[in-house]
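User: Structure with glutamine, tokens only please.
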Amino acid sequence: MTATELVGLTAAEAIGRIRAGELEPAELWSAYQQRAQADDLNAYTWVADADAPAADPAAPLAGVPVAVKDLFCTEGIPSQAGSRILENYCPPYTATAIQNIYDAGAPLLAKTNQDEFAMGSSNENSAYGPVLNPWDRARVPGGSSGGSAAAVAAGLAPWATGTDTGGSIRQPAALCGIVGFKPTYGAISRYGMIAFASSLDQAGTFTRDVTDAALLLEAMVGKDPYDSTCLGLPEPVQPPTATDLRGVRLGVPEELSGEGIEPGVLAAFERTLDIARDLGATVESTHLPHAAHGLSAYYLIAPAECSSNLARFDGVRYGMRVDDGGGLLDMYTGTRAAGFGDEVKRRIMLGTYALSSGYYDAYYGRAQKVRTKISEDFESAFSAFDFLVTPTSPGVAFELGAKSDDPLAMYFNDFCTVPMSLAGIPALSIPNGTAQAPGGSSTELPTGFQIAGPAFSENKLLNAAYALETALAFDSSPAREAS
Ligand code: GLN
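Assistant:
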């Protein structure tokens, strides 16, 4: 097989060939390692330089290599979370989610670039530079897991891990034309995941297709004595097989599928609803009355939690230290001033303010009440529908720099994904076509279709996504061929 043919295989196809003795894991490793080392999208912050590690073809992941978002701790390997303050930080242990992947037989190929501490929607907040979208290098890949999304879309990795606090798996997956899955909060351990907002942070997968998502997810999930909020999943994740959507009731929340969504994205969304109907689903519009307040609640809760989580970066325990002899307080402030980027500082200030005495009830307390209302909205919607569907991102990939000076425009990217994060429910994005960028550009760019289900509905969700994916037959090869 040529290297191009090799990287054209999905992970599941590669595993099948390895098991059949038609492909050596070492061959696959070398093909990906070469592409990863030649990465010109800035998708990677570290690439393995070792020869192919020993692989066990009988292991669940059979030696198919994985790329890992940089905020997962990997023992002895830089884990910088996109921040200057963690430059060259090599943790003494590996995150449970990643250790689970190693134990399932997948070796680490590379660490992926990301927005600093996962704060961002374009990957432009990385201290290690922006990542380019393989569909159009003048555009962003989305964020915060932009490196993972770009790497998988461009065929620089068979699959990758990511984290999603408000949309950071689903939105970049949509902008790069691949599948991104954020499971139920607590399905995967957060131990060793550098924290942003602990009540929202959720690990998940970037894959070429839904079958690969099920495989990688099954490797990552599981209870963990090191994370008391981690439950695992009630049943093993099964390879999806559904060929139709008969009997499946899809709800379209009006609040998340109209105003503010680009016309091209809406048109693709409508076409996908038609396909769902053809497959036998019923599609009805519904309401999530508080969903429109999701962003406001999120941008209080997430900064509040981050202001507390990021207090640990003080120049004493991790990463960089700026000490010009002025004493302890100067060392703290000097380190944090030099080590954090603008967006991270903005959030620490917002969060500290929202938690301060006198404002706590008005801001943080109220945001928590809105969060509860949003969860209740979902609960009542799921009494009438199996899944809720929306466009994943309000727009296609935008040009680098287009939203950098406007934090609110940047925050709006997560309008459709944040409510599911606040409710802790599983949601997945599949590529459902292309649309032209607004403003008369002729470039066709991928769009994403989001499917959200009740907590712990992973297997049903994957099956519904699989049936749709098969009918959509989205062609992801242009992004690989351009790379
Ligand atoms: N874009 C959102 C933010 O900046 C979500 C990020 C994420 O999910 N990590 O907070």
